[in-house]
Amino acid sequence: xxxxxxxxxxxxxxxxxxxxxFRLIVLNTFFSVIPLVIVVTIxxxxxxxxxxxxxxxxxxxxxxxxxxALEFFISERISALKFLVNSYPxxxxxxxxxxxxxxxxxxxxxxxxxxxxxxxxxxxxLLYTGPYNLKGKDYSQADWFKEMFFRTDYVTSVxxxxxxxxxxxxxxxxxxxxxxxxxxxxxxxNMDVLQKLISNLxxxxxxxxxxxxxxxxxxxxxxxxxxxxxxxxLNNLKIKSDKKNVSIYDIELNKKQAYISYVPIKxxxxxxxxxxxxxxxxxxxxxxxxxxxxxxxxSIIITFIVITKSINTLINRIKQADHERExxxxxxxxxxxxxxxxxxxAGVAHEINNPLAIINExxxxxxxxxxxxxxxxxxxxxxxxxxxxxNSVTRCRTITHRLLSFSRRINIGKEDINVNDxxxxxxxxxxxxxxxxxxxIVYDFQDTLPKIITDKxxxxxxxxxxxxxxxxxxxxxxTIKIQTRLSDSNYLEISIQDNGxxxxxxxxxxxxxxxxxxxxxxxxxxxxxxxxxxxxxxGDIHVESEIDQGTTFTxxxxxxxxxxxxxxxxxxxxx
Amino acid sequence: MKKAKLLIxxxxxxxxxxxxxxxxLRGYDAHGVTNxxxxxxxxxxxxxxxxxxxxxxxxxxxxxxKKIKEINPTIQVIMMSGYGDAERINKSLxxxxxxxxxxxVDIDELVSKxxxxxxxxxxx
Lengths: 575, 124
Description:
The complex is a heterodimer of chains A (575) and B (124).
Chain A: H1 2-87, H2 96-109, E1 113-120, E2 125-129, H3 143-147, E3 153-155, E4 167-175, E5 182-190, H4 191-198, E6 208-212, E7 247-253, E8 256-264, E9 271-276, H5 283-372, H6 379-407, E10 415-417, H7 419-429, H8 431-436, E11 440-445, E12 452-454, H9 456-473, E13 479-486, E14 491-498, H10 505-508, H11 526-536, E15 540-546, E16 550-558, H12 563-574
Parallel strand pairs in A: 11-13
Antiparallel strand pairs in A: 1-2, 1-5, 3-4, 4-5, 6-9, 7-8, 8-9, 10-12, 13-14, 14-16, 15-16
Chain B: E1 5-9, H1 13-25, E2 29-33, H2 36-43, E3 49-53, H3 61-71, E4 76-81, H4 86-94, E5 99-102, H5 107-123
Parallel strand pairs in B: 1-2, 1-3, 3-4, 4-5
């Protein structure tokens, strides 16, 4: 049984240390890692932001470059054509041979030019040079022709026209000297030239770059949105062509994050659009993640190892300290027990020695009478002496039985007891001491107290301890008042009040602590043990004291305690 | 030599009466009392030896010892008690007790102590 309890306690303690160790390691690691996590997260977000900004700037720069290239390409041709119209004599634009000559010169200087034509103010192509047979074609219904009534030059959107090949035209108006007359010089350029110009933009194979016109019709082929002249289908996004600068927005394309960037091309109906799906801005963060993750993980592992090692050392120290403290308390408890036993033994010896002395003298007198007198004459005297001897034996028996009731507590844990009787029994032990000090004991017992279920021996030990303290505290001829009463339906109260010198406040708060004693020969464990016992029995103990007025100990004890709970409490200390 | 004159002070009445009778049987002039007030009266008859218990109802035996020594330092006091601790023994001897016996006492030992105490008193 003893071993089982010991095993239980050992297991309980080991678990306690394990839980403590576990908690400390987890908490310490957690709080050590938090700053690292914060720094890594902030750095990550910061770098991510930088990379995004960098990507946007780069994209913007490339868009600007391409826009300039396109604008230059168009404006250069417009200027050249204007120069032709204004500086060459009229016959170059009416004589077919000269016109062909002019076209071949112009074509060799400016790449991408497919054909050239002269259209009169009725929309009829008077002259044409190029690979198609377009002389005499009527353009009076074409949108660009209508536009030329209000403009001096014009760049058209990409269209198929008579030749059925995607191309665009640059048209220059020449006003005649005669009023309201004009003719138009028109050159056509294939769409491939635009495609080539925008392909200079450095993007990955997943990304897309194309031109659209003001009606959102594709002006070049697009990887994502179809071929030239198909309408651009881009939900939830309005491309505003009136803005002058490069715009960048993030959009969701096929349920993926992407960036769209666009910029209008000056003096043309076009807007350059770039769609970036390849996420180039994620390359650096992923590199960063791998490196930093590795370093962080390494730091966490090192932190964990260091913390585990140091906490292991700490727990072992605590374990050792606990063990040493337990040994010290056990030793002191033993010493206290020995001191109590010593005190008890002295009292008991005195109590028994007195009746023994009477027996001794009376037996001796009987022997004397046998030696010195006549037996028959002293018969009555003998009977009287034998009765007296038996009375003394009864006295001794009372004392030994009291002792037995005290020692029986080792075997009997719980029994029905009357508290008033227990107090009287305890007072019986120290009767002599009380008498020799001339102490006046005032009883204020409630007669109708119910019997309580508790450990009688332990309660006796507590009462003996507190009453002994009271006896020590009072002066010669002092008073100790012992009161019992029903506190409520569940508890009894026993109060022991002395009129001694009282306990100073700074001492009072320590009196239930182990090893605290103000007595010369005290072990400092009496009240500590008493407190432990009363708590174990499900009760409570408290003390009030006033200097020069005295001290009152009040013990509160349950009438019918929860036995299971008491057993549970008892397990740890009963051994 | 004339037998000693004795005074026995002990609160156990039966012990006092029995011991007084036994000592008288041995030729001593013994008187017994169970409290100090009665004892004081008999002290005026100057006993040679007082046999004194420590724990009395009305006064502590140690106080009585001091009083006796104040009244007449030549009176020899043999302490007799159920207590046997060194503290009480030393205190008694310091206050001038002739000897300290732990109850129960052997009558022959007591008698020899009484005789020796009487001899000591005679030399004073």
